[in-house]
Amino acid sequence: MEEIISYVFPPRNNHILSILFGLLAKEIIGVNMFQEILYHVLKSLYQFTGAALLIAFLSMFFLLHIEKEGFKKSVGYLFKKLKEEKIFRSYFEFLFVLSMILFRTVLCRNIWNNPLSNIVGNWGLYDGNGALYTENIENTLLFIPLLYLYIRIKRQREEECKILHSMLAALSFSLLIEMLQLFFKVGTFQLSDLFFNTFGGLIGALIDKGVYNLIKKHNGYKTRE
Q1: Which is higher by pLDDT, 46 or 67?
Q2: Domain match, 102 and 172 both
């Protein structure tokens, strides 16, 4: 093969051919346009790589169970566990909310050239251009059910679940997300995200506390009757 190429394109003509092909490529499409197309293609592929990898990895566990027990039996066992065990349903709900947060914050985010461009973040309802900014509300709302379900699981496992511990858990998880964004350059590291995520975790912990006290009080009345 190399002999054929050398015969068709003798070594003495390689430099001339490279110049001609370079001029032709620049004339037809333009170097800047080619770079822009390449950037957007690679960016779109990279953007969903994390999500695809996570789904593929988790799917392998299910496929291993199917291979061992069969599809019908595996699906039946999954729904049986969801129906009969409260803690299993709590795990499912927790993982659902956790997946939503990860897809929104890390796995399907655009690439940022400088993740430290806005460390303080935006604390209001409008950004610097005057456009409506709802990310703080979204962060708060997503962490409310996350921490509520986290505490519920701890209660079902008969583990201690103080509000302070729950806030630290929300802060730790939020910090982990921010560090992942910083490491993979998806999104920006912002102190406002840490605050509103932790604030949402606090609300979730307080809601759990209120619900738990109501149930406990209701069960106390039923016992007296």
Answers
A1: 67
A2: yes
